[in-house]
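Exercise 7. Predict the joint structure of the components listed below.
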Amino acid sequence: MLSRTADNLYWIARYIERAETMARLLQVGERISLVPDAGGAGFRNEWDSLLQASGTAEGFARKYGEAVQRNIESYVFFDYDNPSSIASCVSQARENARIVRSALTAQVWDALNTAFQELRQLERTERSELDIPALAEWTTNKTAMIKGAIDTTLLRNDGWDFLHLGYNLERADNTARLMDVKYYVLLPQLDLVGTGYDNYQWITLLRALSVLRAFRWAYGGEVTARKIADFLILNGQCPRSLITCASGMVTHLDRLAEGYARPTGTQALARRMREDLSAMTPDTIFDEGLHEFLGRFVHDVADLARLVREDYLSGDVR
Amino acid sequence: MYDDGQVRPPYAGLEAWTNTMPAELRHLKQAEAEALFRRIGITFAVYGEGGDPDRLIPFDMFPRVFTGAEWARLERGIKQRARALNAFLVDVYGRGEIVRAGRIPAHLVYRNDAYEKAVVGFTPPRGVYSHIVGIDLVRTGPDQFYVLEDNCRTPSGVSYMLENREIMMRMFPGLFRENPIQPVDRYPELLRRTLASVAPMKCDRDPTVAILTPGHFNSAYYEHSFLADLMGVELVEGQDLFVEGEFVWMRTTEGPKKVDVIYRRIDDAFLDPLCFRPDSTLGVPGLMDVYRSGGVTIASAPGAGVADDKAVYTYVPEMVRFYLGEEPILENVPTWQCSRADELKYVLENLHDLVVKEVHGSGGYGMLVGPCSTKQQIAAFRAKIEENPGNYIAQPTLALSTCPTFVEQGIAPRHVDLRPYCLMGERIELVPGGLTRVALTEGSLVVNSSQGGGVKDTWVLAE
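Solution:
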């Protein structure tokens, strides 16, 4: 397929995944704001770490200064100055889809276009009539529709692989960054603390990744840093764990390599990332240092994104 | 629809339909149609004017109907004209027999801005310059059709022909059971076949066809992507193509892939910055060299525009006689060339009765409709003509036929035109239908979508 088409598909998936992450961040932020501000600045600071995790803290500070909830909502949902806002992501994804209409099924286009048309409606609605849970839920519903349409109607060709490559790559990056913002509360010596504020933060982290219930089913008992790290990094059952995302990327890069009869450096790197993760335990991660490990992983993801561009999307493939 | 109070036969099947549709239902259906258009994404994008960039062309649900016999005659006329126009193009880039024979003034051809010196002496595959000929027609009597203009370059709007039909079939399946309406959905396949049939000399396999678009900000982008999808060919932008060796290649995820036929939807001037406008970023550097050496076919061929120029238009009946030895079936609207002193004098004296157009204008812009204009407008236009007479032609206002159209008060006659899309390659093909544009404003003769025009489904009944 045209490199430009592949590029557009890949970015549709990345934007949609990003919009979903933003929606979850909004949900978590909203929840935290309902908890009494007992620990002084503690809970209120959560908004800041959420902005940090999404890489939008700087842009927000430039535009609004202090983190006031209403401004954060605007910035994260509606603001086109924020390239990662839900409005930006949905509009971009839909514009990309319009460009590559012929590579999508009617159902996928319909899901994306309907999301976009409804977004226009939301933008015209009085803010007082919109609450955060509704906006977040609207977003996760739409992204689920889009993904569902992709998975149930799209031809399993290279375009499908580029979409899934985008999803997995974006998701790996989001999970790793979100953990990294919270790494300090996951330090093992705090295992013993395990109550009150720290515990709440861990649960917040799981909630932000929409895997709290899943975690309880998979591990049971006390929530500990070790279990959380294992779940979010090494557990292949967790839909957002780093290893699940890495395996997803390997699957689709293998398919591309086979279909094109051309192995690539991207494929090799994704495989190495997956092998590395398979060989790890929570202990080896904490020995290396969680922050160091995550930094290394995020760096690998960035490398992978660069290689995807060089190997498939740039149009200079020979 | 009515003729002396009688329903004209082709519309007989529609009278009952309208009688059973009260206003509320009609409004409901109209809203449904609009929602469908918006949902499918059939919009024309207007950027830079503010407001919603995705606009809908008003769709009128009342179809325009031709009988099989009416169409058969039209079809002969359209194909005849398309053949003559292509013969003219081959001739004027070759020996120029029609000019030598004195049937058309040399300066109209060779001094024409659309005459492309870069392709002189080159005959494209199968001698076809214009592979899709869009001929704009109006009807003035039962058997009388006038050609308003020819579009030999890249006539747009065919996606509306196809989508208007899809939407009508979806909303009113009963009408299609009751009326023998000939389908139009073969068009994309015929277009693909036409393009494949003009593969270049150096192509020795199943040709790869691609549509070249200026990009997603272009107002007709939807149509480009729609046609690519229906034909199953790639939709490329200039940046996706490059020239290497003797061929044109597209950049794919698997490496370069050779392209044999390019259906371009960009103007000549932007095709190749090395040959035409050096500042064009829409085109492909080196494309024209590959084209002239038989490595790629460009449809329509560069230079085709000289045949659809409004000043050359006057001579199309002459082309039919000269190249085909036939009498033209479709008539030309009498046209006064303001470049000629005697005709200019007549035009300036009769502005209030005439339609005056710019020679190179399109989209209904830069024109004067005398009978519908104020004294001030006419005076202002007169000044423009006097300043540059060669830039204008004038035509009488015709007693255009009307078609029943849904309006606020019910059904009322509105003026319509018709653009069928004739395909020329190895064969010459015309699907039974076309784009009917309708002037939604009462009394208006301007059907362009940019000027408040709408569209209708166009039916050709089987005999």
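Discussion. The two ends of chain B are 19 Å apart (CA to CA).
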